Amino acid sequence: MWLSDNWRDYALIDCGGGEKLERWGKYMLVRPDPQAIWESPRRDKAWRDPDARYLRSNTGGGHWENHRLPAFWDIHYRDLTFRVKPMSFKHTGIFPEQAANWDFITERIKKRRAAGKPMRVLNLFAYTGAATIAAAAAGAEVCHVDAAKGMVAWAKENAACSGLTDRPIRWIVDDCAAFVEREIRRGRRYDAIIMDPPSYGRGPTGQIWKMENDLYAFVQLCTRVLSDDPDFVVLSAYTAGLNPGVAGYVLGMALMEQHGGKVACEELGLPCAASGLALPCGCSARWTAD
Predict the structure, then answer these.
(1) Interatomic CA distance for residues 19 and 38, integer angstroms
(2) pLDDT per residue of the chain (290 residues) written in tens, 0 to 9
């Protein structure tokens, strides 16, 4: 398991009974988590009186209860700053388990730049831009693509919070597959690709995405925008039932015949302070050229 265990402004305090208790900066949140099906004694008093608790509705969706949160606040990871906002569907705009990938991305970019090579990164399904910010901070030129205009605007906020507004970042609101197809026609190429596709989604003009139907063909499509000297591809997924090995096979079968290299795949996880366990938070696969 790739653990995101270098946080200071975030901590998974406890989890169990289908919920997790988290510290986001100075605020304590309780949110549902489908992986935490064991029981916890819940000794921490914040379980009983968090700053906010997200409750699911029997009819879908849910709401925040005991809401003592500001509209937004900032948290830090290493030299990066992210804006946190409690959203209507339990999310906060940041997936803290992805910090393990941010560290990987940062290391790969700095290594390549130290060798005197440029690094152009394509971030697809880029959400609020944490990976974009990590890549830009490490010195890469980044193209950030997401179908949701509001998420791209939020990503720009994160870039500003991290002092990266002057970095070479293209902000694109578009369906990811349609954008990649256009980049192929334009002859634009990238040295690295990051993708974190949803289980299900709709593009800005109604395109439907289903992970089980579309992922492999999409990864194959993306290989056509890789440069002649590609460095890495990262695929992440929170989809229940997508095994890390499957994610690894997808990257390996799409990339290794033409580009060689190697693939590593693992669950992503967050260390739990109360139990010493690690909460699984989806999976990730990484192809590297060396």
Answers:
(1) 10
(2) 999 999 999 999 999 999 999 999 999 999 999 999 999 999 999 999 999 999 988 777 899 997 789 999 999 999 999 999 999 889 999 999 999 999 999 999 999 999 999 999 999 999 999 999 999 999 999 999 999 999 999 999 999 999 999 999 999 999 999 999 999 999 999 999 999 998 887 766 677 778 888 999 999 999 999 999 999 999 999 866 688 999 999 999 999 999 999 999 999 999 999 999 999 999 999 999 99
DSSP-derived pairing of the beta strands 19-24 and 10-16: antiparallel
- Residue 6's CB: how many other CB atoms inside 10 A? 11
Residue found by looking up tokens 């989890």 in the block = 15
Please calculate the CA angle 94-96-99 and round it to the nearest 5 degrees.
Answer: 115
C-alpha pair distances (Å), 56 with each of 32, 42, 109, 219? 8, 20, 40, 34
Secondary structure of the chain in the HEC alphabet?
CEECCCCCCEEEEEEECCEEEEEECCEEEEEECCCCCCCCCCCCHHHCCCCEEEEECCCCCEEEECCCCCCCEEEEECCEEEEECCCCCCCCCCCHHHHHHHHHHHHHHHHHHHCCCCCEEEEECCCCCHHHHHHHHCCCEEEEEECCHHHHHHHHHHHHHCCCCCCCEEEEECCHHHHHHHHHHHCCCECEEEECCCCEEECCCCCEEEHHHHHHHHHHHHHHHECCCCCEEEEEECCCCCCHHHHHHHHHHHHHHHHCCEEEEEEEEEEECCCCCEEEEEEEEEEECC
Tokens of 72: 């937004």
Both structure tokens of 162: 């991290």
Distance (Å, whole) CA 19 – CA 243: 22
